[in-house]
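Researcher: I'm preparing a figure for a lab meeting and need a structural model of a single chain. I don't have an experimental structure, so a prediction will have to do for now. The sequence is pasted below. Please return the structure as tokens so I can convert it later.
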Amino acid sequence: MEDSQRGNTSTITYVILLGFGDFREVGTVLFSLFLSLYVVTLCGNLLLILAVQTSPRLHTPMYFFLCHLSCVDVGYTSSIAPQLLKEVLSGGVTISFTACVVQLYAVGALLTVECFLLAIMSYDRFLAICWPLRYSVLMDTRTCVKLALGSWVGGFLFVGAVLILLAKLTFCGPHIIDDFFCDFFPLVKLSCTDTTIVEKVAFASSFLSLSPFLWTLLSYGCIIFCILRISSSTGRYRAFSTCSSHLIVVSVFYGTMIVVYMTPASGKTLNLNKIFSLLYTVLTPLLNPLVYSLRNKDVQIALKKGTKLPCSIKKSRL
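Model: Understood. Here is the structure written out token by token.
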């Protein structure tokens, strides 16, 4: 029945995103909540970038990559949050099919870049803890720039290759996606042509995308081994504190993504997956600046100086 309906429909030009359903009774409350989270996320990440750029003490590889991480967080949060705000007010939103594909590409590419950056930051912590004497040589400015540039280029090329295969499909309905943003597999289900090859390539690429996660696990395995070899408890605590913030961010980010993409999206698990999708698309970008600012005295000092800087400029002009 479904196949016959698809065959009788024309190529779709728009998509209806159901979001979290019809919450019009509490839509204003949810709108205020998500808007507050979005504003705090933007301000937190932008302030963190400002603090790193204005404080010479933070001109280190770890904070260099953290700035790129904040840029990624601002990017894919801004790709989802404005649309999410419309959904909670109206119980769903209609967007063009082209806009849906663009959102899929932007979110997918930026999330891939974040995976690469988190892996690089874990490698940076491994070098700082396990090879402290050679750290400045192994992680010099040129190496940092190459790694960051490789993350951005690799993320967009990786998702772009899958998107080329997606463009060869014919999409003829239905128009409805039961999610709050355009994700890959829900979008593929709208195709009325054979999607076997695309799904196999996407499945294979998902294993390739696990390489940053495996690299992160390997780095922290080596870090833990090195920390356990430190004789003094004070030394072990100091070594662990240098990577604890990053470890918290990695745990939340990958933990929620694994739940979403490794569980079947059917029945009750579909709504649960939406909630976990919120965690890595909305809350994780908020978590990054909070964790690094609350757990790092250097960042706190830089933020205080950064907030005083505009005031001092105004006084000097007066």
